[in-house]
């Protein structure tokens, strides 16, 4: 019989012990938000402090590093135990936060953000603990709660951090993040039992470096090409290094007995799932990056957009958190009834509709708040359904690795669309009263790219639903008979 991470058999009904586990893991996910998403609140201040016009490097670097960290820590969890690796993940993220807090220049700050990227692994490690501890139908709902309920704390923290940053500078956010990470590492170590499932194997450190470095080179080309020229030597050199590293990684992954990501054993349904997550999560994250940039510009500038003076940036970033609280549990409840793949498809369709609404939301606060809330619902549905769909395709001994692929999809999609959006903005700037600002053309093109990503994701999700319906088992909606 499968043993749970609590030391007993899987939960088949709701009880106090399960609720306590969910509360702890939800707080773990709050650590992820404080490290990855919360810095958006002070993005304009960070841009001024480091004197740069590249928000993606300050914001998306942690996501980029997550591509390297996630499969590495996922494999480590399968080999050494989920709780042990989760504690390590929290400590790494906390160390990265401290580096960011004291970094005197952008290079060290980016290094800290890359270390913070390890925090992303906490999301799928928490999911793996839930799925190990619960029967499938209970697990689908519990995953939704764990991945989204931390947003309740995010709502209050947005306003607190905004006030603290105003009083003490943006660095205070990273000190708070480090403290929370350390506190949760101790909590996890003392309250959650270690999982008993083990999968023998070894870690592919070289593959992690090649994958992370290759993506950094390609995205560096996108970032620098918009300002230095797409055919300039430095961007082209970065592109060449990135492509060579990615090809080298892929060739190695196709030949190694235990690669970082086993590309040979990713079946069709899982590929479709990861593509939907890549596009959907990337579109959502890019829209989230746009909110503080639009929120810092007053409409009186006459640029055709701007929300400054109508409401605080904290309010605009708190509203998606409310939507996330709603979207995650509802998606889990729906997944237990209609299947996670169908729920995932519904989430990306909603995202497409909402992204179109942001064409008006960049100038009208009520529309922006409504769109931001529904974007949060979209994010909750995509995250919960993505984990549930991927986990349903994997055997017990591969839960850590397969769940990590979801984070890889989220990370690559978020980083790619963040960098593409930033490149569009920086290449379409205008000068107003001697100050360089984003143009309406850039802002609306940015939204159009996100909308197109949602639209493509919806089409792919439709194909995924058809595949899962063809292979559905009678007892578990949306589950594949074949392994990933």
UniProtKB/TrEMBL annotation:
<feature type="transmembrane region" description="Helical">
    <location>
        <begin position="443"/>
        <end position="465"/>
    </location>
</feature>
<dbReference type="GO" id="GO:0005886">
    <property type="term" value="C:plasma membrane"/>
</dbReference>
<dbReference type="Pfam" id="PF07690">
    <property type="entry name" value="MFS_1"/>
</dbReference>
<keyword id="KW-0813">Transport</keyword>
<keyword id="KW-0472">Membrane</keyword>
<feature type="transmembrane region" description="Helical">
    <location>
        <begin position="114"/>
        <end position="131"/>
    </location>
</feature>
<feature type="transmembrane region" description="Helical">
    <location>
        <begin position="230"/>
        <end position="251"/>
    </location>
</feature>
<feature type="transmembrane region" description="Helical">
    <location>
        <begin position="272"/>
        <end position="294"/>
    </location>
</feature>
<feature type="transmembrane region" description="Helical">
    <location>
        <begin position="167"/>
        <end position="191"/>
    </location>
</feature>
<dbReference type="InterPro" id="IPR036259">
    <property type="entry name" value="MFS_trans_sf"/>
</dbReference>
<feature type="transmembrane region" description="Helical">
    <location>
        <begin position="55"/>
        <end position="73"/>
    </location>
</feature>
<feature type="transmembrane region" description="Helical">
    <location>
        <begin position="203"/>
        <end position="224"/>
    </location>
</feature>
<feature type="domain" description="Major facilitator superfamily (MFS) profile">
    <location>
        <begin position="19"/>
        <end position="469"/>
    </location>
</feature>
<dbReference type="InterPro" id="IPR011701">
    <property type="entry name" value="MFS"/>
</dbReference>
<feature type="transmembrane region" description="Helical">
    <location>
        <begin position="21"/>
        <end position="43"/>
    </location>
</feature>
<feature type="transmembrane region" description="Helical">
    <location>
        <begin position="138"/>
        <end position="161"/>
    </location>
</feature>
<keyword id="KW-1133">Transmembrane helix</keyword>
<feature type="transmembrane region" description="Helical">
    <location>
        <begin position="85"/>
        <end position="108"/>
    </location>
</feature>
<dbReference type="GO" id="GO:0022857">
    <property type="term" value="F:transmembrane transporter activity"/>
</dbReference>
<feature type="transmembrane region" description="Helical">
    <location>
        <begin position="314"/>
        <end position="336"/>
    </location>
</feature>
<protein>
    <submittedName>
        <fullName>Major facilitator transporter</fullName>
    </submittedName>
</protein>
<feature type="transmembrane region" description="Helical">
    <location>
        <begin position="405"/>
        <end position="431"/>
    </location>
</feature>
<feature type="transmembrane region" description="Helical">
    <location>
        <begin position="343"/>
        <end position="365"/>
    </location>
</feature>
<feature type="transmembrane region" description="Helical">
    <location>
        <begin position="371"/>
        <end position="393"/>
    </location>
</feature>
<dbReference type="InterPro" id="IPR020846">
    <property type="entry name" value="MFS_dom"/>
</dbReference>
<keyword id="KW-0812">Transmembrane</keyword>
